Amino acid sequence: MVKGAGSGRDAALRAIAKSSQADTVGIALRRALLGEIEGTCITRAKFGSVPHEYSTIAGIEESVQEILLNLKEIVLRSNLSMELEAHPFASKVLDT
């Protein structure tokens, strides 16, 4: 522990920063705080027979990775306190 001016908490934080453990403590703190936040979000996406996120879908301009990044931008509002499974469906008729 570093002794000096300030509260014990400040001294503890300075000691952590000096011992190169700040990243480890910060990540653990972030996970603990985010784990307590309740909210509604998209947790999974399934694309038929697409093998991985770097694939492309014939007839679709965006790659699967771009679509997944766009899904992260969707803001959902809910007052539910339980898990629900939704099956949104999108299709495109391809000209042959």
TrEMBL record:
It comes from the Eukaryota. InterPro entries: RNApol_insert_sf (IPR036643). This is DNA-directed RNA polymerase insert domain-containing protein.
